[in-house]
Specification:
The structure is a homodimer.
Chain A: H1 2-10, H2 17-24, E1 28-32, E2 37-39, E3 47-53, E4 56-61, E5 67-73, E6 78-79, H3 82-87, E7 94-97, E8 101-107, H4 108-117, H5 119-145, H6 148-158, H7 160-165, H8 168-175, H9 179-185
Antiparallel strand pairs in A: 1-8, 2-7, 3-6, 3-8, 4-5, 4-7
Chain lengths: 187, 187
């Protein structure tokens, strides 16, 4: 499963085999089952997770039990509760598995160590953070200014396989609409 | 005005006077008047802006002319349309001055050059990007799960001086409520 990580790093930086072996030695691999919690509101978030296989979501569950999905992550994406991870505070989000999942886990200490030791790794994570920032900017604009129908069609267009894999209830929660509204949109 | 930038960098990295002089030589200073556009929907975004003095906003204006404020930036903050800046595409946001403004401008080419030449600068911008990511995560959770009243009180608590300086119409637009609703909240 480190092959996927190697390809992933290779898209942004050139590491020698020795450098990559060193980098990958700072990751641990884990498997989670569908519905399992990878991080939980109120508990610390120990790792950032690189998805090798499967689909996860991060979501906020309010006091009334209503779930708001912040992000989805499938193969080749990263997911964590970054506020909690970077600030080493308790999670405000749940991260749970939509499918059976294989991830590679990176602790904050190991991330900072690698960034400090290898300029290229610092470069890699700066680029990833910029990309993540842009994705969140898009998400905010979408929440503020688009209709549910527009959000639905944009998701289908940008991530067709993701929309396919996602149960309809979760798709509705991600779009911020009721299950009934989604049925009308996707009819 | 480079004194402010020096203090700002000094919070995250240690640069020698020579290094800082080299870094600062890649910035240009500009002044804008209240209401002036720093970036405009549909045009390229040439720079990231470090705010030395004044207050700016980035906002999305929809086809009906309704303004949604994505972000505010005052002294010691950065602002740009990062999607447009990093991808070198046309802006989807307007960035305009709420007050008279002094900024230090960094082009993408100069940012990448500095990050490549100085590991510490790459570290600085990675940390800033992480912090920006966290701020957007908070903003999304707030938009998804908080009431207008909760958003208003959180803003007052976190950024009291910002809420003071911001005209009520813009404060309402940032919170996503009507001017009338805001009057009730702040009564």
């Amino acid at each position: 499963m480190f092959e996927e990580l190697k390809t992933h790093f290779g898209k942004l930086v050139s590491l020698t085999p020795e450098e990559f072996a060193y980098v990958s030695s700072h990751f641990t691999s884990r498997k989670f089952r569908k519905h399992q919690f990878v991080a939980q509101q109120g508990s610390p978030v120990s790792h950032d997770f690189f998805v090798v296989k499967g689909l996860l979501k991060s979501s906020f569950v309010n006091e009334q039990g209503k779930e708001h999905i912040l992000q989805l992550a499938m193969e080749d994406w990263w997911i964590s509760d970054y506020q909690a991870y970077f600030n080493q505070t308790d999670a405000t989000l749940d991260i749970t598995c939509v499918e059976d999942v294989e991830v590679l886990c990176l602790s904050l200490a190991n991330r900072e160590k690698l960034c400090s030791e290898l300029h290229q790794i610092e470069h890699f994570f700066r680029k990833k953070s910029n990309a993540g920032y842009i994705a969140l900017q898009r998400r905010i604009l979408s929440l503020m200014s688009q209709s549910a129908a527009e959000r639905y069609h944009e998701l289908l267009q940008m991530y067709p396989s993701l929309a396919q894999r996602l149960p309809k209830t979760l798709l509705a929660s991600y779009l911020g609409v009721s299950r009934e509204t989604l049925s009308r949109l996707s009819a």
